[in-house]
Amino acid sequence: MKKILLLGLSLFMMLHVAAQIRPNQAYYNYINQYKDLAIEEMMRYRIPASITLAQGLLESRAGLSDLVRQGNNHFGIKCHNWTGPTQYHDDDEAGECFRVYADAKESYEDHSKFLSRQPRYSSLFNLSIYDYKGWAYTLKSCGYATSPTYASKLIQIIELYHLDQYDRATGYDRFMAQHSGADMPGNKKLLHPIKIFNKNYYLYAREGDTFKSIGEEVGISWRKLAKYNERGKRDVLHKGDIIYLKKKRNKAPKEYKNYVHVVKDGESMYLIAQKYGIRLKSLYKLNCLSPDYQIYTGARLRVR
């Protein structure tokens, strides 16, 4: 009986650990959104990008916390020696004061300054930027967080999502770093994750979005956004619409060289052009079609 209980307890612990380390899509979205910003901060302040990302993921619950939604605070930094705007939330004690930032970029930079300018964290900068374990344990010993498992959680996140690959980065996407944190003043919605395809940047619209609201979020003229996407600036957007942030290209990526797209029910020439990140007129030209061509289910189209 004792052996059965021990076996059951061991199995429970194994399942509990497995559940803890299971990859989460929200984490992947957060990493894609902010990895270039973390690399930029690493190059400026010599803080491992893996540590910055892991702290951001843990402290903000992958951008889903009230601290982020209400004040763009990705790292749970409190109001000590802070003269800027504030917000109040329960943490170690009820109603504690936390810093508020204009956007994620400001939060990431303040996190770098917070670590690099305080004597209590000076020992961190004696460590290699490739020693993420040393950084995690030293952050805990310096008092960044009260949780006894803080260091192990950071390490677990870094290893599960292979964040240490960004510590070896020699460059970063400046557009992504610049636009990963842009937000409208007072906007309580989560930012649209920005993705990359066919040497372009895009995001998925949400119901209620407009070219104007997206333009204000990413810092691009809404008239330009509409033009890039070959639509009217006042067109109604719907959930799932692909919105490109730069002018689309004439051909799909090289991996589609010999690929043929088979038209499905409900697809239009425009939707197909958006799917492959190419201009509508280019899709017609690639297939030697006239502008009055009537698309039909089962039609075969070249995209490169």
CATH architecture of the largest domain: Orthogonal Bundle
Structural class by SSE content: mainly alpha
Subunit organisation of the chains: single chain
Separation, N- and C-terminal Cα atoms: 67 Å
CATH fold type of the largest domain = Lysozyme
Identify the CATH class of the largest domain: Mainly Alpha
Q: What Rg is obtained from the alpha carbons, in whole angstroms?
A: 23 Å
Q: Considering DSSP H and I runs of 4 or more, what fraction of the residues is helical?
A: 40-55%
- Low-confidence spans: 9-19, 182-189
**SSE arrangement, N to C:** HHHHEEHHHHEEHHEEHHE
Largest sheet: 3 strands, antiparallel
**Helix tally?**
12
**Strand arrangement, largest sheet?**
3-4-5
